[in-house]
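Field log, afternoon session.

UNIT: design team B
ACTIVITY: writing a sequence onto a fixed backbone
BACKBONE:
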């Protein structure tokens, strides 16, 4: 079956496969779950099965599958944000123009809207018209992580499929198969996301540096820590994951020993996240983060 190469969510595999076998394919779906757990992979494989011309789907040999596998299928389209900030009404209007045309290769047409929670309100209202009266040959799949950003009118017209985070056992198996060295802390950071696990492989040296920084909080002066932490200043695009690493480390220590320095350090990290989200000066936020945690490890021991 087409889903065999995708980790986790076996119940959803069975559900979607059965809908193909029974030819009970709906006009609109909403795939909801944490980023990086495979929703887009599921949506693409499901789309290929819907479009496949053979009785056993996907066959990977019919003209539809061949075009799909070469990213050249005229009855399939993926809509995504063009600026990583929003999906605008113009993109939805283009979808509507395309969906109005009958299928060319398959008997169906499939449209995926990635990160559909980035759709503007205007774009959602525009899409609503299509969801209310979709062509009989069309299926639309919305992929998102935050359904609170979606209009209730949109949600009421889609069949919601909730994806679960990938289990740590499955993540470990994937890591072993792909020669990715992971610790318990890194697995916790992944939060069931295969994408985050893959990212860890490319950032192994970064996390090793973080381990050293945390160890040095108790033994080095703050000037040394600031110099050592250059990687934090250069990792603006990945800083939330790095800060999560700090907090999981502190939380694991807290479970073994109730110490106020770990509690306070977790609070400092969370405060830093809030400051960064409000567009505070990046370097100053990192300066303050390191100084305050260093103070907890060097001056805060007497507070417990």
């Amino acid at each position: 079956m087409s889903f065999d190469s995708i980790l986790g969510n076996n119940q959803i595999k069975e559900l979607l496969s059965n809908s193909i076998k029974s030819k009970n394919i709906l006009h609109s779906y909403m795939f909801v779950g944490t980023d990086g757990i495979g929703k887009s992979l599921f949506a693409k494989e499901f789309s290929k099965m819907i479009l496949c011309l053979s009785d056993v789907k996907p066959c990977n040999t019919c003209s539809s599958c061949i075009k799909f596998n070469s990213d050249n299928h005229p009855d399939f389209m993926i809509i995504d944000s063009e600026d990583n900030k929003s999906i605008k009404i113009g993109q939805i209007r283009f979808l509507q123009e395309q969906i109005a045309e009958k299928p060319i290769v398959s008997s169906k047409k499939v449209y995926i809207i990635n990160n559909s929670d980035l759709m503007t309100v205007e774009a959602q209202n525009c899409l609503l018209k299509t969801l209310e009266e979709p062509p009989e040959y069309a299926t639309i799949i919305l992929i998102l992580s935050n359904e609170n950003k979606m209009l209730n009118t949109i949600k009421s017209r889609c069949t919601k499929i909730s994806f679960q985070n990938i289990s740590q056992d499955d993540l470990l198996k994937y890591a072993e198969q792909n020669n990715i060295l992971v610790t318990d802390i890194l697995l916790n950071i992944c939060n069931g996301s295969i994408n985050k696990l893959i990212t860890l492989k490319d950032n192994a040296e970064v996390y090793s540096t973080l381990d050293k920084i945390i160890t040095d909080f108790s033994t080095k002066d703050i000037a040394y820590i600031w110099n050592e932490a250059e990687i934090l200043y250069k990792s603006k695009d990945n800083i939330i994951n790095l800060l999560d690493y700090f907090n999981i480390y502190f939380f694991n220590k807290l479970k073994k020993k109730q110490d106020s320095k770990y509690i306070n350090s977790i609070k400092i990290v969370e405060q830093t996240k809030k400051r960064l989200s409000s567009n505070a000066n990046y370097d100053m936020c990192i300066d303050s983060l390191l100084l305050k945690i260093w103070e907890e490890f060097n001056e805060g021991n007497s507070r417990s």
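LOG NOTE: DSSP finds 15 helices and five strands in the chain.
NEXT ACTIVITY: expression trials, pending approval
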